[in-house]
């Protein structure tokens, strides 16, 4: 009989990647995390207080726990894989009380989420107390796993594996590689609208953008009010869906992966996490440009990737991009490497790992 696995988390592309990895060999279903399920219900100060209490003591919502119980029963699941940040920790605590027989795993896609010392200490505390309840952890790279061990965020002997996050093959760019642009250029697919309440100062890449523009690099990025400065090399584009964005990216020289680390009290998150914008970039088959300093986990993820440029400064990056023959070689390498970054490649290893726990 095939293994029953319930995925628990937000309805994002990582859900579909896990479904691709496990599909066919396992019975797979999905339930939202409680934060997604209860979104909009816990308004006002009393609702926020209740939510904070649940983060400490575990999810108590009867409606939510009934939803999860029904999903587990319908799928005859013996394994739950929760994903993203610290959001599912309260749900995992509740599930351990509800179903002691379940095998509970956390896919650590982003940790810590906080960018200040107080927030990181709080999340470390949450992780330590929840990790004692887990049967296994899935890490995006060796740097994240080493961090969990060094910081005592999980029992040293807890079962774990490195599972590189990837988008499903169906989301990759298809057809023939498009022709490249004639002038040195880059695309940035991170946030440029800085007005949202969820934006952190690390998202404000305008200083680095300006240096790239002043170095003579054509810069393509999502349009926003905050980046309307009239620079002649700026090329803003209208928002498009994820699949269309990936299809549009491969004509560029490089995809810029960077954050404003100088604005962070603590940049551990960016040294360990593999950002979604990188997954989209390798799925698009475009070379990667990343600052030479920092981003350890990202660089581990790209180990052996031929289409990677680590630059010390925008003028240094411009010197690389001026060599158009070299850029074309990088673009071909990035395009040819797309299958390496498909979620399907990791399905057998993940299924074997889950099977070893049951």
CATH class of the largest domain: Alpha Beta
Strand content: 5-15%
Q: Could you state the CATH homologous superfamily of the largest domain?
A: Glycogen Phosphorylase B
Strand order of the largest sheet: 2-1-3-4-5-6
Main beta sheet: strand number and arrangement? 6 strands, parallel
Terminal Cα span: 13 Å
General form: globular
Protein name: Glycosyl transferase family 1
Can you describe this structure?
The structure is a single chain. With 358 residues, the protein is α/β, with parallel strands linked by helices. It folds into 2 domains: 4-166 and 343-357, Glycogen Phosphorylase B (Rossmann fold, 3-Layer(aba) Sandwich), CATH 3.40.50.2000; 170-341, Rossmann fold (3-Layer(aba) Sandwich), CATH 3.40.50. It is 41% helix and 15% strand. It has 15 helices and 12 strands. It has a 6-stranded parallel beta sheet, with helices on both faces. Helix 5 (89-98) links the parallel strand 3 (79-83) and strand 4. The mean pLDDT is 94.
Question: What are the SSEs and their pairings?
Answer:
Elements: E1 3-8, H1 13-22, E2 26-31, H2 34-37, H3 44-57, H4 62-75, E3 79-83, H5 89-98, E4 103-107, H6 117-131, E5 136-139, H7 142-150, E6 160-162, E7 185-188, H8 206-214, E8 218-222, E9 234-237, H9 242-249, E10 254-256, H10 268-272, H11 276-284, E11 288-291, H12 296-301, E12 308-311, H13 314-322, H14 324-336, H15 347-357
Parallel strand pairs: 1-2, 1-3, 3-4, 4-5, 5-6, 7-8, 7-10, 8-9, 10-11, 11-12
